[in-house]
Write a structure and sequence with these properties.
Blueprint (H helix, E strand, L loop, with lengths): L1 H19 L3 E7 L6 H17 L3 E2 L2 E9 L7 H11 L4 E3 L4 H14 L2 E4 L16 E3 L5 H13 L4 E7 L2 H16 L3 E8 L7 H10 L3 E5 L2 H13 L8 E4 L7 H4 L7 E4 L8 H14 L5 H19 L7 H10 L2 E3 L2 E5 L5 E11 L2 E12 L9
Parallel strand pairs: 1-3, 1-4, 4-5, 5-6, 7-8, 7-9, 9-10, 10-11
Antiparallel strand pairs: 2-3, 11-14, 12-13, 13-14, 14-15
Helix pairs in contact: 2-11, 3-4, 5-6, 11-12
Bound molecules: P-hydroxybenzoic acid.
Amino acid sequence: MKSRIAALAAALIATAASAQAPKLKVGLMLPYSGTYAALGTAIENGFRLYLAEQGGRIAGREIEFSKVDDESEPAKAVDNVNKLIKRDNVDVLVGTVHSGVAMAMAKAAKDNGTLLIIPNAGAVAVTGPMCAENIFRSSFSNWQPGYAMGEVAAKRGARKVVTITWKYAAGDESVGGFKEAFEKSGGQVVKELSLPFPNVEFQPLLTEIAAIKPDAVYTFFAGGGAVKFVKDYAAAGLKNTIPLYGAGFLTDGTLEAQGADADGLLTTLHYGDGLDNAKDKTFRAAYAKAYGMPPDAYAVQGYDAAQMLAIGLNATKGDVSRKSDFAKAIVAAKIDSPRGVFTIGANHNPVQDMYLRQVLGKDNKVIGVASKSLADPGRGCKM
Ligand code: PHB
């Protein structure tokens, strides 16, 4: 009897404590305008879907959002992140898409000790020289899909390749990963073409590609820019003569707009359509029901950012100041993602399969695994 009363009292205290736990403030810093706008929305949708599945609470704490549109504009990044850290006093930062903006977020997170989960931006430095106990990524490093495609291109017999991308961290590092694997396998990158982000005047560069006549082209573009690039590549008459290989962003969340011009394209990414796992099936059905469209890789990254937050918070009973325990729980976890189970490496970047995908109608159909359990090298990271 005595122990039943004690148990009842403990349960009552626990309920009261969780009802009284202050709300957890999550600062969402994402692009809601510009070439990456759709990516920001998909990330937020995924994040909110996981939260809804938890009844709106993580570790007993209700979640309250502050939102900033970062416009994928590095020049405004410091001001924008300070709105969330200093003005809104958020407990956790979640963002962003653009690597240049993410670098400013990582610096601010480091300086202020604020927890940061990056649901897209692949800037290698963030899980390299800038790595920190309180900074995590739920997505990829820019190096990962590039490296995977470098091996694929070599296996498919390409010897001389031209690369084309936006001139900033994401493009440079994606090409860097490709080049590392491709040249290790005996290939040669004969020309690296680029234009400033987010420009889309591709024509002069496409003319150059036609003149060089490489065996293949490797590219990083994403969002609205990727839509235009794929259409321009086809319109220039290159699609049927020079194979176009890309980091998967080239065709992710873009197929509706690219139509037949994307048909057959080969890309590498950590997610795709037709994965045969139970988690993905449930996720896709729930996402389609909530948002009226199929999810893409960005939605998965948002969903998994929320899952990682929950893993850390559950381990620390909702206390974000217990940074070391928070990090230990995430690094020890097997994360049950729609992409397949993955882990987080010592540098806090996902260790994950890179799928080879081919565009078939409106799908990025997974046709194989290009690189199994691929980890970013984490060069320069000292935790
Ligand atoms: C990046 O800036 O790191 C970036 C942006 C969009 C993507 C992928 C990477 O789709």
